[in-house]
Write a structure and sequence with these properties.
Length: about 270
Amino acid sequence: MFNKKNIVITGASQGLGQAMAMLLAKHEANLVLCARSEENLQSVKENILNNYPQTKIKILALDICEKENNKILIEESLKFLGSIDVFIANAGKSMWSRFSDVDDPCDLLDLIKLNFMSVVYASYFSLEHLRKSKGCFLAVSSIQGVLPVPYHSGYVASKHALNGFIDTLRLEEPDIHFLLAMPSWIAGTNIRSNALVSHKQNSVKVNTKHKNNVISKEECAKIILNALSNNKDYVFIPYKYGFISMIRIFFRKLVDRIIVNKTNSQLK
């Protein structure tokens, strides 16, 4: 499916975005990779070209929290690719803090800007072109887009907003395929070390390495792109998590207790 497809990826300098870029290059897709760090993007580009030298690839160092940078991203992608078949909104930031412990409640705006508004901006400037190509908009959300998780209030709120936004666009844009990817914890990313945290003395501290067996970024990328190629609307990773929100309707206290215990197991 991805051979010679024109694909734009945000948050592509590391983690899941990097893994998806590498896998797409293997399938001979044409790529525009976007993130804030030009140095990291250049490293990803070199790695891709070392493994798949035929790849048509461009990197753009942009802060997509800014609306105008999303316009630039789409314009530069069209200049380089000619059209856009798939837009992958992958950039995001997590949170590990009680809400009452955050240094400033306005810190949550950083999560809203990156996890939600950057997708709003990207979709605003890309939908016209995805209509023409009958393409796909893939938004990397989280299982926390359908479930509450302690110490993640701002992240949960941003991902719930993202899910509602994409589901609404799905109704408004019948010529575009929308995929919501909702992974749980992923190994091999820096999302924990880059998370919003509190600096107060008694605030929670999370292990940057997962204590339990979790899916690798490479396997997660493979599952997401397989769902994309099969025109799925949603993909939960692992798939069993897709049932939890339904079970919670009938057994909320039990499910919430499991969520709290599982989350607390990740603390130092």
